[in-house]
Amino acid sequence: MSHISEERKEILLRRYGNKGMNGNAGPGGRRPGGMGRPGGPRGALGGGKPKNAYTTIKRLLAYIGRDKIKILFVLACVLGSTLTGLGGSYILRPVINNLVSADRSAEEKIRNLAIGLLTMACIYLVGIICSYLQQRIMIGVSQNALVRIREDLFRRIQKLPVKYHDTHTHGDLMSRFTNDLDSVGEMLNNTMAHIFSSVITLIGTLILMFVTNWILSAVTIITVPLLVYAAGMIGKQSRKYFMAQQQALGAVNGYIEETVTGQKVIKVFCHEETAMEEFEFLSDDLRKKQMKAQFFGGIIGPVMGNLSQVSYAISATVGGILCLTSNFDIGGLTIFTQYSRQFSRPVNELSMQMNMIFAALAGAERVFEVMDEAPETAGPADAIEICAEANPVEGAQVIKGEVELKNVTFGYTPDKTVLKNINVKAKPGQKVAFVGSTGAGKTTITNQINRFYEVEEGHILIDGIDIKKIRKDSLRGNIAMVLQDTHLFSDTVRENIRYGRLDATDEEVIAAAKIASAHSFIERLPDGYDTVLEGDGSNLSQGERQLLNIARAAISKAPILILDEATSSVDTRTEKYIERGMDRLMKNRTTFVIAHRLSTVRNADHIIVLEHGEIIEQGTHEELLAMGGRYYQLYTGAIELD
Description:
This protein has 642 residues and is an alpha/beta fold. 60% of the residues lie in helices and 10% in strands.
């Protein structure tokens, strides 16, 4: 029996389901990877109404339409396949009339039957070839479209601001790349060609039905509104539940991603049972929504099939009466009943694939929701390029690294101000440290300097230039960061260091490693700099990973450096080793240091004490101790940082 409260259930659905995808944040958020403190659970509840299906289909067709020549060839094959099917059926009329005719001899009947069967065989052979080519080419077209969608989605995610990633679960974003795009791929592979074929079959069958007998055609068409109404009613419900299913699937993936990543924490605090109960709730929620989606998607086929059988029975009955009361021939009745089945078959085929269609449309909507998110802009058209003297760029303005925050005020949400009238000035080459309690606004200041979040009030200047006038990529290219949470890629040690500046030479990589005090341990690795790292550097110690992180920052030659609690997750001995690397790294760079361990900031040129987003003290280490205020209490252990 689940012990999860209703409030907790609502939180789970809101946090991991990412309903609405509007990126709004509420109170009480987490700190994502040391990069900031967006004020709420990722993917706040609200605005979960799915977009218009017509718009989604139109966008999917635009991706397919880029292979126009292939599409035209597929349409030609579909047309050929459909016409051969209809033509082969129509030949049955003279063949049957020939067999039941009393005016022909047995030899004539056999000869005409052989000619008719041979003609039908040739026609159907052409149809088989057309069907094969149609399917083969359509698979290529659909896969090309899927590649384009996947690339556009990945490209958009790369361009989304940090705020978006801070407010959406990684698992749900991954679900859009996997489950949602898989659903779209299934539809494009199997359904699109059927739609083309069904439309042409429907039109061709209708024409031949009127050519055969207009009275029976009218009787058959009477049942069409009933078929359309039934398909529309069931389809409306099916689409709604398939959208809910895709959201629930994203929630399950998001929860799995987070719990697998944090498995060590779960075990340390003995939360296995809680995690299982919460997963069971999310899994059960997915089961319920899948059942509804599959039910409405599944009943549409049988319902449409039974309605078409009723239409077939009525046509056969009326046709039999016409054969008895008028000059309507047996061959005509035979092919008309066959056309009657063919007339409903396209509708039945589409209805049987409604599960796939609605799942794909729901998945496509979720993919397009991400694509429609506003990308991070580089800056105004006349934005300035900047560079450091150590890393000159043609046409860019050389900066020394003077950074000034003037009256900066900011809040992640309108109702909660995180920074209040912050004024800080760092001269080129100076080391400025921020200390204070958790949530005081230390990391938020560095987020503002990087323009991960835009300043609401006040200005941030680099060498007197407002950073809003600097291109974002140029700004960030001149700021190196060493974070508490290291991230290494599944590549060689050499390439992980080179990630700080992709055009760096091997000699520069080694020089950066020496600056970071990483060269000696790298040399001891099995393949030295060519050692391939596993799973975010799991084959290295925490300290070694951090040294590579420092080397990555060193190779960038950025004039501004940010160290965000870079040594808080290592032991004291390792910290001393890392500090030697950081001291070399900070030489001749304007450096901002965030640290909980005050011993690491004693040699800072300027120390700023923050509380509740305000500067309450500032000065050198000796000056602050002499004040006997907050810093003195923190340093002497009278109070502790929380």
